[in-house]
Amino acid sequence: MTEDSKREEMSLKELILSFRTWLKYIFSKWYILLLAGLIGGMTGFFYAQSKKDVYRAVTTFVLESGESNGGLNQYAGIASMVGVDLGSSSTGIFQGDNLFEFYRSRKMLESTLLKPSLIDSSKLLIDRYLTLEKNMRRNQQVVDFGRTYTGLAKRKRDSVINNVIGEIIKKNLKVDKLDKKLSIIKVEIKAYDEAFAKEFNTALVKEVNDFYRITKTRKAQQNIEIIQSQVDSIRRVMHGSIQAVASIADATPNLNPTRQAQRTVPTQRSQFSAETNKAILNQLVQNLELAKMTLLKESPLIQIIDEPTFPLEKNSVSKKLFFLIGFLFLVTVAVFMLTVLRFYKSTMHDFER
């Protein structure tokens, strides 16, 4: 056996002996390790016990945007020739991540938070949220969200609302697709209170979807209102012309044959006005029907698939798991400290010799 082999064998034996000595030393301090483990375990247990259960309210729905292209293009072209705009689809602003941002927008969240609670009509949803959040309760005592403020008071009220919205976006709200390959949208609200989670989720989904419908069809609805106003106006003028013809006949019952101009001229003028307005009315009625078709095409279909129902899914912190984590963590720390202490004593002992 060579000298190098003997040295390697001795080094390996020394390493094994050192490890066995260290292991024997660690086991000799079993009471310290047990005490540290129990302290860590109890700390983890009480930490888990202090954490509240979190409830998840989830709504899933499919969204099919309205169409304004395809078959309506031919009608839109005809209508544009007479100066009528039947509207165009605004689908783009409601696609992809843009729709998700509506749920995270201040306008939508503030409108939802300021709605009265169905469970406790004396409180708004924002009041209930502040009651659940300990770190924000102090703000609840100085702001009445049901009042209208001005000046510094309004600034303070808006500041509290902004803080609440920021907390909700950060901790409570999650909006995403159920699957990237699907068009199913999931809106999730987490809260410490089961009833609040369900109520806020339902209110937010309704607020955003109603806003979506109104905005999506606003242009088509405005076109209908404009054309309907024109139809009513022309119809009144036409009815007036028809009535004028009858009134002229009534005003000249025994007309002198030599004075036919007294009846003929006003009558023909009124008849011409009525015929002209009738033609215009026919065209406007057609345009009105086309505008109504556009409104139907642009109206989005929002179909709720699943709504939150009691009992909600509950995420609880496992006390056993945290006890085990705390136990192992402090035992590991204790082993490390004992090793450092033993190494320090051994070093100092060798130094003193």
* Alpha-carbon distance between the two ends: 35 Å
Q: What is the helix/strand order?
A: HHEHHHHHHEEHHHEEH
Tell me the structural class.
alpha+beta
How would the global form be characterised? elongated
Question: DSSP strand (E) fraction?
Answer: 5-15%
List segments where confidence is low: pLDDT < 50 over at least 5 consecutive residues: 70-75
Fraction in helix: 55-70%
Calculate Rg over CA atoms: 40 Å
Mean pLDDT: 80
By DSSP (H or I, 4+ residues per run), the number of helices equals 12
At a glance:
The protein has 353 residues and is α+β, with helices and mostly antiparallel strands. Helix content is 67%, strand content 9%.
Q: What does this entry look like structurally?
A:
The chain is of the alpha+beta class and 353 residues long. The protein has twelve helices and five strands. Strands 1, 2, 3, 4 and 5 form a five-stranded antiparallel β-sheet that branches. β2 and β3 form a beta hairpin. The longest helix is centred in the last third of the chain and has 38 residues, at 261-298. It is elongated.
